Amino acid sequence: MPAVGIAVGGSKKEYPGNLTLYVTVTCVVAAMGGLIFGYDIGISGGVTSMDSFLRKFFPSVFRKKHENQTSNQYCQYDSVTLTLFTSSLYLAALLSSLVASTVTRKFGRKLSMLFGGVLFCAGAIINAAAKNVEMLIIGRILLGFGIGFANQSVPLYLSEMAPYKYRGALNIGFQLSITIGILIANVLNYFFAKIKGGWGWRLSLGGAVVPALIISVGSLILPDTPNSMIERGRNDEARQQLKRIRGVEDIDEEFNDLVAASDESKKVQNPWTNLLKRKYRPHLSVAILIPFFQQLTGINVIMFYAPVLFNTIGFGSDAALMSAVITGCVNVAATVVSIYGVDKWGRRFLFLEGGVQMFICQAVVAAAIGAKFGVSGNPDTLPKWYAIVVVLFICIYVAGFAWSWGPLGWLVPSEIFPLEIRSAAQSVNVSVNMFFTFVIAQVFLTMLCHMKFGLFIFFAFFVVVMSIFVALFLPETKGIPIEEMSQVWKKHWYWRRFVRDTDFPAKNRGVEMGKGGRGGYA
């Protein structure tokens, strides 16, 4: 399958190459790094709906949940300590992603992936053995450190290995792994919750060791990317590696562009201050706004707390966990749709279609919950048809996210970073994502208690805002070699005022985007 080039800005630059079995297998193994993030998202919501877990670590929440079944359903899980258990991980991930930037740049993508796996494994073991809340939170912080390293390095690795024509599909393998991790966690929660003796939550939390070992071992056997080799002065090895992953001998043009990009990047003493230059304003804006908007779709509210949410709106604890499994299946299936369509239909189409779909579903869910629970949070008996309607529209909402803002929120920022700012910009992308994930996780249950069904309207409003942003300010990046990406900004009606021809001269087109950075969740 030859990777046919695309003309951009009058350029006819094409890089010959095939989608080889070698690069496909390599990308699949690397994408497994998303499992640790996805598994954690799924597990944390599931264990916090298990009575045995709540009784041991959060007795006040357990009492509130059971003392009066007719009490305000919106507020039964409102606990600062409970939300700190969930959200502490994301604050740790934010901090570690900043450190990971330096490790990734100076020592390669593989070492960051290894650090991510080892730290996540340590956190999983501590959580499984937890005796008190303090141990739980220490374990969560180590999990967060692991996720910060993995989310910083895996997307970059995928983008740099992938032929540009298939960059979108191979990159979304990372998001697919996240969704598979969520699904596996939901299924395990469902069965572990049934274990007599109430220790199933230990298996749920300890099970995180498995995806941690996958990414740790994977990082040891995976090859380096040519980009990373060149960045560290191993040019001869990089040339051979580029021939191998492209499946052709004629790699001179791409190799020379990578070397030029590396030479240019070495002139940058401090990539963090370099990020603030006027010519990088479009890149920095997208690196901040895309992950910011991704969290304000409300998806993490659904995926973190799906069992809690379904329990709150009247499903039994068992039924709540099963409903989370259903949404997890939808999540995986819709991500596969994105893999199929991202390089056919384009990024903007998926963003905008997903936005419309999510808005409609959030409006329907808000109306459904508002009609039954009102502002008091005390529903009458909930008929089965009502429960089915709520789950159906939440599933349609999850599908809309999973083929739009889910994978593209990681893919698009990564496609636009020049090599000289790539690691730093990727860290900004991950840090913003983790910061707002932390904020949403920390305040969600309190917001649910006070805003009630209006919380879904709150997120629906932001879906409208982010869709307008995409329509007006996000250029299409489908099928454009990263070495040519600067032309996109020069032609955009708004961003061209920040990017001049002298910033990215034609003879150095390969310099600015080097080869393929990417941004998760992620």
Automatic annotation (TrEMBL):
Keywords for the protein's UniProt record, in alphabetical order: Membrane, Sugar transport, Symport, Transmembrane, Transmembrane helix, Transport
GO cellular component: membrane
Record's bilayer topology term: Multi-pass membrane protein
Gene Ontology molecular function: monosaccharide transmembrane transporter activity; symporter activity
Record Pfam families: Sugar_tr
Main localisation: membrane
Ranges where the Major facilitator superfamily (MFS) profile domain occurs: 26-478
Keyword Membrane in annotation: yes
Entry keyword Transmembrane: yes
Family: Belongs to the major facilitator superfamily. Sugar transporter (TC 2.A.1.1) family.
Name of this protein: Sugar carrier protein C isoform X1
UniProt source species: Cucurbita moschata
Name of the gene encoding the protein in the UniProt record: LOC111457235
